[in-house]
Each structure stands twice: as structure tokens, then as C-alpha cells.
TrEMBL record:
This is Branched-chain amino acid ABC transporter permease. It comes from Kumtagia ephedrae. GO terms for molecular function: branched-chain amino acid transmembrane transporter activity. Keywords: Cell membrane, Membrane, Transmembrane, Transmembrane helix. The chain crosses the membrane at residues 40-60, 72-91, 97-116, 121-138, 180-201, 231-250, 265-293, 305-324. The keyword Acetylation does not apply. It comes from the Bacteria. Pfam families: BPD_transp_2 (PF02653). One of its GO terms (cellular component) is plasma membrane. It is a multi-pass membrane protein. It is found in: Cell membrane.
Amino acid sequence: MTTSLRPMSVSGSARLDLLVSLALVGAAVALPFMVDSRYVLGQVVLALFYATIASQWNLLFGFSGIFSLAQMAIFAFGGYATAMICFYFGWNVWAALFPGALAAVVFSLIVGLACLRLTGVYVALLTLAIAQTMYLLIVTDTECFVMVGSICRQLTGGAVGFARFGDLGTREFLKGQWLVGNYAIVATLFAVTMIATYIIVKSPIGLAFKALKDNPGYAVARGVNRFQAQLLVFGISAFFTGLAGGFYAAHFQAIGPGILSMSQLMFIIAIAVVGGVGTFWGPLVGTIVLVAADELMREAGEFRTLGLGLIIALSIVLMPKGLVGRLGDLVRWLRRRSGAAGRSKLRESTATAGE
């Protein structure tokens, strides 16, 4: 009985994911035609960056159990690497994006190697220390590296960062509609990231990640190499996070150390928690809820942060599995109810036939 039900469950889940995906693609295509405000479209682009970062942090922690706090550092590393390649070597942004993502992967593997023999809170503390060290190295970089005209530039851009090193080319081709072009590019990046994440999670590699999260001792006993799996998930997550960092820098035509602030990191983690850690659609749902709530409370001043804090706290207390987890519980409850009702009707019809 168990063997026969499992394929049906997986197939049903895959069909639901496909339907949700198609609905999201339709909404994404229609959005530029429905939204006239450049501000709103710009906020949607920013939300897509948040969702991309959160999905990769969710891959690390939600599916693999690695509580890393270096996600924004990896994102910034990819953005800085892309900007520096363009600024110092004169490369086109599109040519620099892939090397920038690879640089983020190398940085991530170094972080992963440092965390190999650590677990739990110790990984969090070490990755946070690495991120903060990176921030301090950038903001305290005051030594002249190169003269640009009469202006002395630091290697990392210092507290100012980098600006006007290039863009995605949409301003030249689309003129006044360049933001729509950037939206399409970033939406495609998010879609590719989610598809790759889905394939990884459903593959044998994803099962190994989940096994190491749920029962590390048993997973290792069954032949899963914890060190290799940890480095692999660090590298996969870093590639898409670093690539998103490069697109972020190119979209805004600037990148600075402010992106490494603790508030940015906490917002990404809050997105995953509110949406549902360890659920595929959790990061997207969490992004929609928190970005919308943050925008609605934009005029609330100092109460804006308090309001977001209350939303996060209530989500943790009332919905420990997040919004997607709660929705999944509701769907399973409805299925049980419909199944029980069907069995009851079958018994009644059988009894009637017997009479």
C-alpha cells in the first residue's frame, strides 16, 4: 500500500508545482502591462533579488541544514567582483557576470572549508565573522590603488564603492523602457535559479543534502560524504547568489559596503522564515509578504521596523513551518476530510445495496 501511494503523492506534488509555475510565468509576463509606475516596477525588481538570495539561503539551511550567515557576503562578493572586472579591465558587464559568479564560488568554497568541522551555531558564528571582516576590510580601505583622473581610487572602492562601471545594455536599446528590460532579465534569472534549485532538491544529491540535515550519522553510515556534500551545496548556492550580486550591481550601476549590513541579512532570513524554511516556494511567498508589508508601512517612520518585527514574531509563533508549510497542512487536512467523506459514502452505498 505504501509503495503504491508514494508515486501518486510525488506526481501530485509535481503537478501542483507545475501549475503554480505556469501561473507565476503568466503573472510575470502580464505585470509590465498592468503596472505603469516605475517605482512599483523597480520595487518588484528589488524583490526578485531578495527572493533569489533567500532561495539559495533556503537551499543551504532549509534543505541542507547549514546555518550560514555569509549569504549577503557571497552576494556582495559576486557584485564587487563583477564591478571590479568592469572597472579595472574595461570588460562589458555581460562578459564579467560569469567570472564574478565564479569568484563568489571560490570565496564560498573557502568559507565552506573553514566550516567543515563545525556544526550548528558555530557555523553561524564563523560565517558571520567572515562577513563582518569583509565589511571592515572594505570600509577601512583608504590606501590609493589607482588614479582616475584627479581622483584616487581604493582597490575595493572603500566606503564609496563602485559606480558607473557599466550596465545591462537596456538603456541603450530600450531607451525609456529600460526598466522593463531589466525586469525581464532579473525575472529570468530568478526563474532559472528556481528551476535549478528544484532539480537539485529532487535529485539524489538533494536527497543526500536532506539526509545530512535530518540524520547526519545515518547519512554518513549510508555512504554520504558530509565534507563533499557541504562544499557542493556551498558552491551551488554561491554561484546563483554571486550571479545575482553581479546583476544587482549592473542593474543599479553601483555597489557599496552597505549591502553587507546586518539589517539586509536579517531581512533575507526573515523572508525564508515567514515563507517557510525547507519549502520550495517559501522564499517567494515570504518575499511577497514582507516586501509588501514593508512598502505599506513606508510612511510609518520608526514603527516600520516594529511592524516588520511583529509580523516575523507572529509568523514564528503561529506558523512555525511558515506560510507555505501552513498551507501544505491545510491541503493535507482537506484531502483527509474528502477521503473520509468518500469512504463514508462508500459504506452507506454498500449497506444500502446489502439491504
